[in-house]
Amino acid sequence: MGRRSPFARAPRPKTRTRRGICINDKVKAVSGPVVLATDASVGTDRVASGYLATTGHTGLRAHLYPLHIARPRTRIVVTELRAVYWGLKPVLAAHPGSPVEVRVDSLDALSYLHAWQSGSTRMPEGYDTRPRSQGRMATLIKLQMRAEYTPNLTFVHEKAHVGNPLNEAADSLAKLGLRAVHGKVPVAEIPRLVPLWAIGALDDYRRSRR
User: Where in 115-199 does DSSP place strands (E)?
Assistant: First the structure.
């Protein structure tokens, strides 16, 4: 009888469900035009978003999303749009006035972004636009204003899962956030993994442009 692996019954890392996780980081930038990729991952009661820009800005957010706020389809597009907001925030702060191309793989989210650039204030069905705690403006209201009034912003569709390094990284970061907030990945590992994945993806992006 063969010897069993010493890892056969190794205990799984202790994890626990979290209400929310937020990681923002900065790694070495890629020279050239500023490109930002964003994506979202949605579970039954939790949502997550991820982003990666050629400026080196990267991060993820994951949190509870109460079921009574909106229908599942609306939760998806809202989370996709929130990913764009959180990705744009550090990029525009670091590079005010620079042209920025934002790549999203959700056509529903893209339609709102294009409409907002044209002055529309239409919001996803069921999205609550009332002020949040301490009078804070709703995230999508802030994104709508940013889309309408920020010059040099371009929103384009990026087909998912075709090997684009930036899009694949944003997708992976969103899924990582969802797994962490569900307690399937140790939260202590997230600050290490986010920049590690971002560096690898930006290296692949550099090579793809040669």
Answer: 153-157
Nearest Cα neighbor of 72 from 47, 50, 106 is 47
Residue 201 CB-density burial (10 A; 0-12 exposed, 13-18 middle, 19+ buried): buried
Dist. CA 34–CA 148, nearest whole Å: 19
16 vs 79: CA distance, rounded Å: 23
How does 77-113 read in b/e, with b if 16+ C-beta sit within 10 Å?
bbbbbbbbbbbbbbbbeebeeeebbbbbbbeebbebb
What domains can be seen in the chain, in order of their start residue?
20-208 (3.30.420.10)
* pLDDT tens string 100-154: 999 999 999 999 999 999 999 999 998 989 998 888 999 999 999 999 999 999 9
How far is 132 from 195, CA to CA, in rounded Å? 31
- With contact defined as beta carbons under 8 Å apart, do 99 and 34 qualify? yes
For residue 5, name the pLDDT band (cuts at 50, 70, 90): very low
Tell me if 59 sits within 8 A of 195, measured CB to CB: no
